[in-house]
Amino acid sequence: TLNVAATSTLATTSATMLSLSGNGFVAGGFGVGTTSAPFSLTVAGHCVTGDTKLRRRRRKLKIKNEKLKTKTKNLKSLAQGETGDEDYIYDEVEIKDIQIGDEVSSLDEATGKLVWRKVEALWDMGKKQIYKLTTESGKTIRTTAEHPYFVLPVSNDMEKQIPQKLFRFEIDQSIRIEELNKDTIIGLANKENSFTSVLHRKVKRHFYEVCRKQGLKKQFGPLVFTAGIVAALQKSTFIFREITIDFEYPGYELFIERIIKKFFPDLFVSFSSIGKKSLAHYAAYGVYINKKTADAKISIAEFLEVIQKLKDRSTVTPLDKSQTIRSRKRSVASSIVNENNLSSVQESKPAWKKVKALKTGDLVAVEKDGEAVFETITNIEILPEEQVYDITVEGTHNFVANGIIAHNTYITSTTTLAGDLNVANNTLFVDALDGRVGIATSTSGFSLTTAGTQYTT
């Protein structure tokens, strides 16, 4: 028996599995993917805002002609925004207004084709912080950090098409990370190429608060500086063999190098006082004083990629992971066909990935002209809380939302959970996609994290 007292404390431990044998009891509401469980069973996890549009199909009503003894179609005229054929009426409806039994457009993962599937449930998820995704064609969706989308990883080989002779870069920043009211620009440069990324003041303030709450104020500067370097290296299209970083944080050289090598294990990292005459400083400061234009912006989601990989250190434990991409559009069906065809060139496998693990440049599945294709995510923006909803879709367990293919919340007959599991205000927290379990905490940086006092018999 394992009894966890919510008001107690216990150092973090790790394990590979949590298994409970015998009877189990949950006092109060049981929440799946939510810390707010007002009912005996409350399901949450995957959410979109209430104005999200779903492509819907409804069968036309039939009436019986008594004289002809045959069934004929209801000749009721179509409403504005509706289209129809002999059997069905098609329209777009906000998710909050969907009805159980309606059919919605959905992706068949086995074929990569769009199909129609029935809605089995509509879920009111309450208010949650919103992430707004935008794709290259202008499709947008306001969603939550935990909502998965169908994403295709792409090889970086396609990026390395620029002729390049020099592979050593210097790295500098325009102003220190700790100046929270100003943007910081990270500059990478040599005599042949340069690249600059903007770290917005809002992103810096966000991570300062995260570090402050976790007692890591001293690590804030070097951690965010390093995360900015990694994000800039990933976003550029250059090949790097050696980097020299300006002495910004004396005593943290090994800390910075270890983080970078988690992403670039073969990269040689050194430190030097490169000075204001450095090409990297010139590139970064030129953007800072508005004499040059930045090549990219670094989002909160891209910073979370770096932090997520730091599982061997007691550092910040928020959200993300993924990779940079620049690629042609390709259809979902062809990607799935190639994946299953052993004679074809090996391609990356499409997979469901949470919003917190996405970043600009990733390829996400969307609907275009009645087909499922991949489009580049061009922007990810964090917005205030909004009321959010989700549905359960029969069979395929996904739906087309604002033209973007999104996963849904569901529970199977064997109690397998799609989404996260949360029992009695974080007494037990299970991150379904990332494979982590927390006891008395929803911040789980390891396979198993516990907080509180353990009692075993």
Layout of helices and strands:
Layout (H helix, E strand, L loop, with lengths): L1 E3 L25 E3 L8 E3 L4 E2 L3 E7 L2 E4 L4 E4 L9 E2 L3 E7 L8 E6 L4 E23 L4 E4 L4 E5 L15 E6 L10 E6 L4 E6 L1 H13 L3 H19 L6 E5 L6 H11 L4 E5 L6 H10 L7 E3 L1 H9 L23 H9 L10 E4 L8 E6 L2 E23 L4 E4 L2 E4 L2 E2 L5 E2 L2 E3 L4 E4 L4 E4 L8 E3 L3 E3 L1
Parallel strand pairs: 2-3, 14-17, 16-19, 17-18, 29-30
Antiparallel strand pairs: 1-31, 2-27, 4-22, 5-9, 5-10, 6-7, 8-9, 10-11, 11-12, 11-22, 13-20, 13-21, 14-15, 15-16, 21-22, 23-24, 25-26, 27-28, 28-29
Structure description:
The strands form 7 sheets. Strands 4, 5, 8, 9, 10, 11, 12, 13, 20, 21 and 22 form an 11-stranded antiparallel β-sheet that branches. This protein has a 6-stranded mixed β-sheet with strand order 3-2-27-28-29-30, with no helix packed on it. The protein contains 6 helices and 31 strands. The protein has helices at 201-213, 217-235, 253-263, 279-288, 300-308, 332-340; strands spanning 2-4, 30-32, 41-43, 48-49, 53-59, 62-65, 70-73, 83-84, 88-94, 103-108, 113-135, 140-143, 148-152, 168-173, 184-189, 194-199, 242-246, 268-272, 296-298, 351-354, 363-368, 371-393, 398-401, 404-407, 410-411, 417-418, 421-423, 428-431, 436-439, 448-450, 454-456. α1 (201-213) crosses α2, α2 runs parallel beside α3 and α2 (217-235) crosses α5. The chain is α+β, with helices and mostly antiparallel strands and 457 residues long. β28 (428-431) and β29 (436-439) form a beta hairpin. It is 16% helix and 36% strand. It is elongated, with a radius of gyration of 25 Å. Residues 1-21, 157-162, 311-329, 337-347 and 412-427 have low confidence and may be disordered.
